[in-house]
Design a protein that fits this description.
Elements: H1 16-32, H2 45-71, H3 79-102, E1 112-113, H4 114-125, E2 132-136, H5 138-141, E3 144-145, H6 149-164, E4 170-177, E5 180-187, H7 192-199, H8 211-222, E6 226-232, E7 235-243
Parallel strand pairs: 2-4
Antiparallel strand pairs: 1-3, 4-5, 5-7, 6-7
Helix pairs in contact: 1-2, 2-3, 2-8, 3-4, 4-6, 6-8
Length: 245
Protein backbone atom coordinates (compact mmCIF):
# COMPACT_ATOMS: atom_id res chain seq x y z
CA UNK A 1 0.00 0.00 0.00
CA UNK A 2 1.35 3.45 -0.96
CA UNK A 3 0.66 6.41 1.29
CA UNK A 4 -0.40 9.71 -0.29
CA UNK A 5 1.78 12.72 0.58
CA UNK A 6 -0.93 14.18 2.81
CA UNK A 7 -1.60 10.95 4.73
CA UNK A 8 -1.19 11.65 8.48
CA UNK A 9 1.73 9.65 9.91
CA UNK A 10 0.16 9.65 13.36
CA UNK A 11 -2.91 7.71 12.23
CA UNK A 12 -3.51 4.68 14.40
CA UNK A 13 -2.53 1.42 12.60
CA UNK A 14 -5.37 -0.79 11.48
CA UNK A 15 -5.57 -4.38 10.35
CA UNK A 16 -6.19 -7.89 11.58
CA UNK A 17 -3.18 -8.24 13.90
CA UNK A 18 -3.69 -4.98 15.87
CA UNK A 19 -7.42 -5.62 16.15
CA UNK A 20 -6.83 -9.20 17.27
CA UNK A 21 -4.29 -8.11 19.85
CA UNK A 22 -6.72 -5.56 21.29
CA UNK A 23 -9.62 -8.03 21.40
CA UNK A 24 -7.57 -10.78 23.09
CA UNK A 25 -6.06 -8.26 25.51
CA UNK A 26 -9.52 -7.12 26.59
CA UNK A 27 -10.59 -10.73 27.18
CA UNK A 28 -7.41 -11.47 29.15
CA UNK A 29 -7.86 -8.39 31.33
CA UNK A 30 -11.48 -9.32 32.08
CA UNK A 31 -10.54 -12.95 32.79
CA UNK A 32 -7.80 -12.00 35.25
CA UNK A 33 -9.52 -9.05 36.92
CA UNK A 34 -9.89 -9.69 40.63
CA UNK A 35 -13.24 -9.56 42.36
CA UNK A 36 -13.85 -7.42 45.36
CA UNK A 37 -12.69 -9.20 48.55
CA UNK A 38 -16.22 -9.93 49.71
CA UNK A 39 -17.03 -11.59 46.38
CA UNK A 40 -13.86 -13.70 46.17
CA UNK A 41 -14.52 -17.44 45.85
CA UNK A 42 -11.94 -20.25 45.73
CA UNK A 43 -11.40 -21.11 42.04
CA UNK A 44 -11.85 -24.64 40.76
CA UNK A 45 -8.77 -26.36 39.27
CA UNK A 46 -10.21 -25.91 35.78
CA UNK A 47 -10.86 -22.20 36.36
CA UNK A 48 -7.40 -21.75 37.84
CA UNK A 49 -5.74 -23.33 34.80
CA UNK A 50 -7.67 -20.98 32.54
CA UNK A 51 -6.66 -18.01 34.67
CA UNK A 52 -3.04 -19.19 34.63
CA UNK A 53 -3.04 -19.31 30.82
CA UNK A 54 -4.67 -15.87 30.64
CA UNK A 55 -2.06 -14.56 33.06
CA UNK A 56 0.75 -16.04 30.97
CA UNK A 57 -0.68 -14.48 27.80
CA UNK A 58 -0.49 -10.94 29.16
CA UNK A 59 3.28 -10.58 28.69
CA UNK A 60 3.45 -11.63 25.02
CA UNK A 61 0.34 -9.58 24.25
CA UNK A 62 1.90 -6.51 25.84
CA UNK A 63 5.09 -7.09 23.82
CA UNK A 64 3.14 -7.48 20.59
CA UNK A 65 1.17 -4.29 21.22
CA UNK A 66 4.37 -2.36 21.96
CA UNK A 67 5.94 -3.84 18.85
CA UNK A 68 2.99 -2.78 16.68
CA UNK A 69 3.36 0.77 17.94
CA UNK A 70 7.09 0.69 17.20
CA UNK A 71 6.62 -0.63 13.68
CA UNK A 72 4.29 2.28 13.00
CA UNK A 73 7.09 4.74 13.76
CA UNK A 74 10.27 3.12 12.42
CA UNK A 75 11.25 1.19 9.28
CA UNK A 76 9.90 -2.36 9.29
CA UNK A 77 13.20 -3.96 8.24
CA UNK A 78 14.65 -4.00 11.75
CA UNK A 79 15.68 -7.65 12.31
CA UNK A 80 15.44 -7.45 16.11
CA UNK A 81 11.81 -6.32 15.89
CA UNK A 82 10.93 -9.16 13.56
CA UNK A 83 12.65 -11.62 15.89
CA UNK A 84 10.66 -10.27 18.84
CA UNK A 85 7.43 -10.65 16.86
CA UNK A 86 8.31 -14.25 16.02
CA UNK A 87 9.14 -15.09 19.65
CA UNK A 88 5.94 -13.61 21.05
CA UNK A 89 3.83 -15.21 18.33
CA UNK A 90 5.40 -18.56 19.21
CA UNK A 91 4.56 -17.91 22.86
CA UNK A 92 0.90 -17.26 22.06
CA UNK A 93 0.80 -20.36 19.86
CA UNK A 94 2.11 -22.32 22.83
CA UNK A 95 -0.75 -20.95 24.94
CA UNK A 96 -3.29 -22.12 22.35
CA UNK A 97 -1.72 -25.58 22.20
CA UNK A 98 -1.89 -25.78 25.98
CA UNK A 99 -5.56 -24.79 25.96
CA UNK A 100 -6.15 -27.42 23.30
CA UNK A 101 -4.46 -30.12 25.38
CA UNK A 102 -6.07 -29.08 28.65
CA UNK A 103 -9.51 -28.96 27.06
CA UNK A 104 -9.37 -32.63 26.12
CA UNK A 105 -9.24 -32.08 22.36
CA UNK A 106 -8.02 -34.87 20.10
CA UNK A 107 -4.25 -35.16 20.31
CA UNK A 108 -2.20 -34.70 17.16
CA UNK A 109 -0.43 -37.83 16.04
CA UNK A 110 3.34 -37.92 15.90
CA UNK A 111 3.96 -35.19 18.44
CA UNK A 112 7.03 -32.96 18.57
CA UNK A 113 10.62 -33.74 19.41
CA UNK A 114 11.42 -32.85 23.02
CA UNK A 115 14.52 -30.99 21.84
CA UNK A 116 12.30 -28.67 19.78
CA UNK A 117 9.95 -28.24 22.73
CA UNK A 118 12.86 -27.27 25.00
CA UNK A 119 14.19 -24.70 22.55
CA UNK A 120 10.71 -23.22 22.04
CA UNK A 121 10.18 -22.97 25.80
CA UNK A 122 13.53 -21.24 26.30
CA UNK A 123 12.70 -18.74 23.56
CA UNK A 124 9.20 -18.04 24.90
CA UNK A 125 10.38 -17.58 28.50
CA UNK A 126 12.38 -14.42 27.81
CA UNK A 127 15.33 -15.74 29.84
CA UNK A 128 18.56 -14.16 28.48
CA UNK A 129 20.85 -16.65 26.76
CA UNK A 130 23.79 -15.61 28.94
CA UNK A 131 21.83 -16.49 32.09
CA UNK A 132 21.00 -20.07 31.05
CA UNK A 133 23.20 -23.17 30.97
CA UNK A 134 21.33 -25.89 29.06
CA UNK A 135 22.31 -29.58 29.19
CA UNK A 136 20.09 -31.48 26.74
CA UNK A 137 20.76 -35.21 26.56
CA UNK A 138 20.80 -36.57 22.99
CA UNK A 139 18.44 -39.39 23.90
CA UNK A 140 15.98 -36.94 25.50
CA UNK A 141 16.13 -34.57 22.52
CA UNK A 142 14.81 -37.36 20.29
CA UNK A 143 11.81 -38.23 22.48
CA UNK A 144 8.47 -37.35 20.88
CA UNK A 145 6.08 -35.38 23.10
CA UNK A 146 2.42 -35.39 22.06
CA UNK A 147 0.99 -33.14 24.78
CA UNK A 148 1.50 -29.35 24.69
CA UNK A 149 1.42 -29.19 28.49
CA UNK A 150 5.04 -30.40 28.58
CA UNK A 151 6.13 -27.15 26.92
CA UNK A 152 3.89 -25.12 29.24
CA UNK A 153 5.47 -26.77 32.31
CA UNK A 154 8.97 -25.93 31.12
CA UNK A 155 8.07 -22.41 29.98
CA UNK A 156 6.48 -21.61 33.35
CA UNK A 157 9.56 -22.83 35.24
CA UNK A 158 11.89 -20.75 33.07
CA UNK A 159 9.64 -17.68 33.22
CA UNK A 160 9.54 -17.90 37.01
CA UNK A 161 13.34 -18.12 37.10
CA UNK A 162 13.58 -15.11 34.80
CA UNK A 163 11.08 -12.91 36.66
CA UNK A 164 11.89 -13.79 40.25
CA UNK A 165 15.48 -15.07 40.21
CA UNK A 166 17.15 -11.63 40.48
CA UNK A 167 19.33 -12.45 37.48
CA UNK A 168 20.94 -15.52 39.07
CA UNK A 169 22.28 -18.13 36.60
CA UNK A 170 19.93 -20.99 35.68
CA UNK A 171 21.02 -24.56 34.98
CA UNK A 172 18.53 -26.68 33.04
CA UNK A 173 19.19 -30.39 32.54
CA UNK A 174 16.87 -32.50 30.34
CA UNK A 175 17.34 -36.26 30.38
CA UNK A 176 15.45 -39.43 29.53
CA UNK A 177 15.89 -42.83 31.14
CA UNK A 178 13.74 -45.86 31.90
CA UNK A 179 10.61 -44.43 30.34
CA UNK A 180 10.86 -41.15 32.27
CA UNK A 181 11.70 -37.67 30.99
CA UNK A 182 13.34 -35.49 33.65
CA UNK A 183 13.39 -31.69 33.60
CA UNK A 184 15.72 -30.37 36.30
CA UNK A 185 16.13 -26.62 36.90
CA UNK A 186 18.62 -25.21 39.44
CA UNK A 187 18.94 -21.57 40.51
CA UNK A 188 20.44 -19.96 43.59
CA UNK A 189 17.39 -17.95 44.69
CA UNK A 190 17.32 -15.81 47.82
CA UNK A 191 14.13 -17.28 49.32
CA UNK A 192 13.56 -20.83 48.03
CA UNK A 193 10.69 -21.46 50.46
CA UNK A 194 8.64 -18.78 48.66
CA UNK A 195 8.95 -20.78 45.45
CA UNK A 196 8.26 -24.14 47.02
CA UNK A 197 5.08 -23.03 48.79
CA UNK A 198 3.23 -22.73 45.47
CA UNK A 199 4.23 -26.26 44.48
CA UNK A 200 2.84 -27.64 47.74
CA UNK A 201 -0.68 -26.33 47.28
CA UNK A 202 -3.47 -28.83 46.63
CA UNK A 203 -5.82 -26.02 45.61
CA UNK A 204 -5.09 -23.05 43.33
CA UNK A 205 -4.27 -19.65 44.88
CA UNK A 206 -7.20 -17.26 45.17
CA UNK A 207 -5.24 -14.45 43.48
CA UNK A 208 -2.68 -14.69 40.65
CA UNK A 209 0.32 -14.94 42.97
CA UNK A 210 2.15 -18.20 42.27
CA UNK A 211 -0.46 -19.36 39.77
CA UNK A 212 2.17 -20.23 37.16
CA UNK A 213 4.03 -22.55 39.55
CA UNK A 214 0.78 -24.05 40.79
CA UNK A 215 -0.13 -24.85 37.18
CA UNK A 216 3.25 -26.60 36.80
CA UNK A 217 2.38 -29.14 39.48
CA UNK A 218 -1.20 -29.41 38.23
CA UNK A 219 -0.15 -30.13 34.63
CA UNK A 220 2.52 -32.54 35.85
CA UNK A 221 0.02 -34.43 37.99
CA UNK A 222 -2.49 -34.61 35.12
CA UNK A 223 0.21 -36.12 32.89
CA UNK A 224 1.03 -38.79 35.48
CA UNK A 225 4.28 -37.20 36.63
CA UNK A 226 5.77 -35.80 39.83
CA UNK A 227 7.42 -32.58 41.02
CA UNK A 228 10.11 -32.68 43.72
CA UNK A 229 12.56 -30.09 45.03
CA UNK A 230 15.74 -29.81 47.06
CA UNK A 231 17.90 -27.00 48.44
CA UNK A 232 21.67 -27.61 48.21
CA UNK A 233 24.82 -25.55 48.01
CA UNK A 234 24.06 -24.90 44.34
CA UNK A 235 20.67 -23.42 45.16
CA UNK A 236 17.08 -24.56 44.68
CA UNK A 237 16.53 -27.48 42.30
CA UNK A 238 13.05 -28.16 40.91
CA UNK A 239 12.73 -31.57 39.23
CA UNK A 240 9.82 -32.62 37.07
CA UNK A 241 9.56 -36.31 36.09
CA UNK A 242 7.14 -37.17 33.31
CA UNK A 243 6.24 -40.46 31.59
CA UNK A 244 8.14 -40.89 28.33
CA UNK A 245 5.22 -40.56 25.88
Amino acid sequence: MTLAPDTPRTQRPSGLLPDLARVVRDHVVRATRRRRPEQELPPTPETALLRAMCHDMRSPLASLEALLGTLDRVPADRPELLELARAQTAHLSSMLRTADATGGATRRTGGRLLGDVVRAAVSASGLPAGQLCLALQDRAAGVRVADARVQRILTNLLENAHRHGDGAPVVLAVTSRGGVVRLSLTQDVAHPHRVVQYLRRDVPPVDLTGLGLWSVQRHTHDLGGTVVWAVTGAGLTLRVDLPDR
